[in-house]
Amino acid sequence: MDINTLTIDAARSLVQSREISARALAEAHYAQIAERDGAIGSFLTLTKERALAKAEQIDRLAEKGDSLPPLAGVPVGVKDVLMTRGERTTAGSRFLDKFIAPYNATSVEKLEAAGAVVLGKMNCDEFAMGSSNENSAFYPVHNPRDTTRVPGGSSGGSAAAVAAGFAVATLGSDTGGSIRQPAAFCGVVGLLPTYGRVSRYGLIAFASSLDHVGPLARSVKDSATLLEVIAGRDPRDSTSADVPVGKFSAECGRDVKGLRIGIPKEYFGEGLNPEIRAAIEQRIDGLRQAGCEIVNVSLPHTEYAVPVYYIVATAEASANLARFDGVRYTTRSPQTKTLADMYRRSRDEGFGAEVKRRIMLGTYALSAGYYDAYYLKAQQVRTLLTRDFQNAFTSVDAIVTPVTPTVAFKLGEKTDDPVAMYLNDIYTVTANLVGVPGISLPCGNNSEGLPIGIQILGKHFDEATVIRLGHAMEQERQ
Amino acid sequence: MKVTEKDVAYVADLANLELTTDESARMVADLNSILGHIDKLNELDTSNVEPLAEVLSVLASTERKGSEKFAYAQRADEVKLGLSREAALFNAPDTDGSCFRVPKVIER
Questions:
Q1: Per-residue pLDDT tens for A398-423?
Q2: Which residues of A touch B58 (CB under 8 A)?
Q3: DSSP string covering A121-157, please?
Q4: Which residue range is the domain that position A149 belongs to?
């Protein structure tokens, strides 16, 4: 067994056949973490007691010879924006340094009910705001493929841990690319479910009309298996959709012949690194050879997506983060005399620079006199972006694009220029604004050996086609 | 420059943030730089375009109207147990054992 490349099915069948106990598997992962995570920084908290109790429960089932649930004994990590009952849950923020979650997020509850062993909580940008994981209040995450580089963000710890062999799979969250971009930078698979597909109950909210919970994994099939487990209507989240959940993993291996694939010219313009372009074109060629019909499409409002995103996301964030007021969530500035003073000082001390910047931008965009010029305008352009996709999907089944304009950049390279950092999200934010599902999967390495990702976007609630195509692409590459 | 230090002070007040002088100067520069990029939206004529706040309304059944579209999100109006008082107060910085405690609200 190579712990660094273990997949869900392999881990589960080792545990089922009792070749290895779930406990020993968890301990082997903890040993790797102890040895190597010091240089990566992917975990913020280890939940050993919880993990070993779960592993032992799975081992007792295996001993009895019972058929085990789909994630039995699979060691996973959970991004620290998801609530884990009784465990420290920080959202990467100083504000929540000592916060103990009073309940489980639905996605975490479902993972554990399916037998997964939660090893710990993954590092991330503070409140999931960032594209490099350098906004974590605790420590940055380093890319396991080159530790001088960022792992991407905001689910940087979730991607790095899967790449480094610390967890077979992880949960992340994606508001503007936060699952797909780190997956691309670290050379793993990241799946963005349709808006409403996975419950957000227990997800610490950033921008409620854009937030998604989704998996990061080592294969398209693993990501599909995880989606099957976490998807579905949840009465505790009124925005979770009442749409049947398919057998997504069964899409892996289905023929892709005859599928129509849209290539939007706006995603291949200036600014796209030539090596990434070449790698993507090679994969598109592979799809053509597999019998897909390649169609040129246009998503004409693409260049407006980043400005729309940074208005909508920050406006919603400014409202969501109002709850951090010094009353309920652990942090309160000492020795403040009035309530107003306490609010201000607590927030000033608890929040980092990027979070303050986004609260300020969002508050500005919503304030009297600017609402129409910024917030309303952004919502109108959001309609145009949605129409772009509706039009494209009348002639194609899926859309293939790059995930990022460049490969993983160096730590510190973009921290002084917020606009340069935001533009890194250019190919990912639109899916969140429009609510469509997508996947980011490895599509080769550049000349320096750094991973390149490719993105497949599908119609609303058609994760099936995205997974089918992703798996075909993965097989073609091997 | 569109955003001035005065604007930043006003918005910080709305957002209940206290910014230091250094933070405030940096914020003026950052907001202007970001808003400069966002001004790109003015290239588009959106006078006849409906705003979109969230996509579920687009996805919800087109045969149903208004709130009927979201019938699935409704639930019976029944009393159910929520988070216990003890659990709700657990993370609070200051309580009297049954309520959150905060500094004086009325300034005199």
A1: 999 999 999 999 999 998 888 888 98
A2: 386, 435
A3: EE--SGGG--SSSTT-SS-PPPBTTBTTB---SSSHH
A4: 8-251
